[in-house]
């Protein structure tokens, strides 16, 4: 918008109004890595990189800058002498930082206020807390790909941990086709989520570099691990699709979609009994969960991913499509000639 008006006689009137400037953030507005992809950065990794950018340890950043935003009037300065677990109220901060606990929302809100960013919720699984059971889903300690760390070092780019690595059932790095590591190769320690050690990528306890420049971590043949590959790809799909959600998935709508899938399974078996061998077990499992746990979030690994696999749909299709769109995909997959009733 121009700051002056041109008059017919050629004179200019200059506006004396000061231009609007964006609000300054207290902390650096550090850009997250990989949003909208399966390699989206985890919130814990973002906190670690933000601390490194400010040349302070992560714990100090959390307790002196983030904690006051979360606790408000309840915050007392001596609190910073305690560890991060005292803030989150659990023995390890990992599930709280990368999981779905209530404290996570407060942490995201505090960080977004301090950095003036609006996209940090995508570094979490908060969007899925109504439909996915959090129990046993996340690791208690860090896991990483040594070859990814080494590649970041060689390429001189920011070292970060994808949210994908936070899931307990993700055991491999698809990019380097190797197993993730969850303990220091030198001292054997399990590492906490908060990297209270500078520079990043080193052991919290002994200082050992955690990258692999000697290819000590051998490649895996994923043909021997088809189930693991299926889990990794679907969790990656779930992470990637999060920013595209129009709204947070609700349990009621999710259950309706699962009931639609169950209908398709039973319909295709009624047309040809040979399908019972493939679909019989998943039908029984799905029915049991819908009847006994239909009012609670469902297990991602044991229910949601296997159901999507048997229905020949992706996790993103399950959550992005409405009932009409999903029915068209399912009816086409199973060659079902059926018209959903108009609600």
Automatic annotation (TrEMBL):
This protein's UniProt keywords: Plasmid
A Pfam family annotated for this UniProt entry: TniQ
Domain TniQ positions: 33-180
The name this protein goes by in its record: TniQ domain-containing protein
Taxonomic source organism: Gloeothece verrucosa (strain PCC 7822)
């Amino acid at each position: 918008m121009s700051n002056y008006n041109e008059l017919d006689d050629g004179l200019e009137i200059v506006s004396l109004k000061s231009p609007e400037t964006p609000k300054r953030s207290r902390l650096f507005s550090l850009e997250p890595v990989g949003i909208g992809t399966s390699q989206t950065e985890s919130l814990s990794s973002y906190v670690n990189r933000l601390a490194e950018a400010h040349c302070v340890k992560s714990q100090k950043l959390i307790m002196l800058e983030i904690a006051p935003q979360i606790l408000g009037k309840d915050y007392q300065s001596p609190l910073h002498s305690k560890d991060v677990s005292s803030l989150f109220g659990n023995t390890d901060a990992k599930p709280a930082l990368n999981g779905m606990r209530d404290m996570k929302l407060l942490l995201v809100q505090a960080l977004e206020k301090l950095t003036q960013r609006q996209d940090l919720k995508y570094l979490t699984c908060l969007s899925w807390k109504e439909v996915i059971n959090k129990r046993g889903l996340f690791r208690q300690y860090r896991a990483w790909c040594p070859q990814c760390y080494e590649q970041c070092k060689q390429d001189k780019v920011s070292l970060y941990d994808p949210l994908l690595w936070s899931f307990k059932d993700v055991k491999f790095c698809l990019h380097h086709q190797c197993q993730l590591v969850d303990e220091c190769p030198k001292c054997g320690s399990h590492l906490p989520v908060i990297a209270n050690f500078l520079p990043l990528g080193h052991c919290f306890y002994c200082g050992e570099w955690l990258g692999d420049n000697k290819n000590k971590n051998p490649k895996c043949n994923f043909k021997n691990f088809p189930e693991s590959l299926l889990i990794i790809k679907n969790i990656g799909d779930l992470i990637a699709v999060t920013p595209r959600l129009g709204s947070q998935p609700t349990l009621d709508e999710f259950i309706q979609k699962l009931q639609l899938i169950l209908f398709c399974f039973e319909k295709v078996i009624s047309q040809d009994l040979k399908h019972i061998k493939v679909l019989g077990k998943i039908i029984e499992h799905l029915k049991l969960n819908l009847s006994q746990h239909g009012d609670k979030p469902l297990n991602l690994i044991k229910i949601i991913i296997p159901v999507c696999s048997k229905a020949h749909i992706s996790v993103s299709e399950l959550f992005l499509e409405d009932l009409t769109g999903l029915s068209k995909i399912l009816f086409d997959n199973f060659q079902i000639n059926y018209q959903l009733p108009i609600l």
